[in-house]
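Quick one, C-alpha cells below. Sequence please?
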C-alpha cells in the first residue's frame, strides 16, 4: 500500500515533467486524477482514524481530553 508521501512525490514528478504531446497530456491528466483520488481516500482514512482515537469527557468544571496515537 502506498503512503501519502509516495503519492505526493509522484504528483511532484508529474508536475516536474510536463507532457510533450496531446496524448501524453491526456495520460498524465488521468494519472494525476487517479493519484488525487487515492490521496483523498488515504487522507479520509487518516482523519477517520484520528477522530476515532480522541475522547473528551466533562465532569462539572473538569474537562478531560484523551488522545490515543499509534507510532
Amino acid at each position: 500500500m502506498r503512503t501519502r508521501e509516495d503519492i505526493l512525490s509522484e504528483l511532484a514528478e508529474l508536475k516536474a515533467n510536463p507532457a510533450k504531446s496531446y496524448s501524453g497530456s491526456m495520460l498524465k491528466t488521468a494519472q494525476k486524477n487517479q493519484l488525487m483520488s487515492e490521496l483523498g481516500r488515504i487522507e479520509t482514512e487518516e482523519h477517520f482514524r484520528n477522530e476515532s482515537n480522541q475522547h473528551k469527557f466533562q465532569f462539572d468544571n473538569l474537562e478531560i481530553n484523551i488522545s490515543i496515537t499509534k507510532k
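The longest strand covers residues 54-59. The CA atoms of residues 10 and 31 lie 9 Å apart.
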